[in-house]
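Run log // design_07
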């Protein structure tokens, strides 16, 4: 019989710092990787994660829930959207993003978080 598995972002399996403006706390649970990102004011994917990812835009699919703050997403096709507290968001690969305003954006990501912002 399988047991209930419980983990906390207070004791993550791994912490992945963004270059200069925030971090992702990562837990492995139920065969999935779940991340809680804290994106500080001024954070922008193309400045703070692109050097880690080594791609022109973010190629990770995100399925997230925004806890606080706001983030604007810029898709490679020119479309854009903004998310804030209480929003559930699906972001396909091929995007840039940035924090809007002076409050950190915190988001829990259940998407393809496995290698996101992971330094080699």
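design_07 sequence
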């Amino acid at each position: 019989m399988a047991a209930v598995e419980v983990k906390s972002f207070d004791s993550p399996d791994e912490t992945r710092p963004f270059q200069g403006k925030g971090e992702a706390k990562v837990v492995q649970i139920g065969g999935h990787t779940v991340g809680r990102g804290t994106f500080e004011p001024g954070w922008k994917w193309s400045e703070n994660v692109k050097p880690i990812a080594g791609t022109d835009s973010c190629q990770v699919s995100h399925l997230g829930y925004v806890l606080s703050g706001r983030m604007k997403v810029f898709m490679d096709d020119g479309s854009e959207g903004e998310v804030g507290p209480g929003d559930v968001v699906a972001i396909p690969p091929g995007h840039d993003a940035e924090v809007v305003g002076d409050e950190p954006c915190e988001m829990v990501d259940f998407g393809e978080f496995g290698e996101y912002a992971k330094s080699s």
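The first helix runs from residue 45 to 48.
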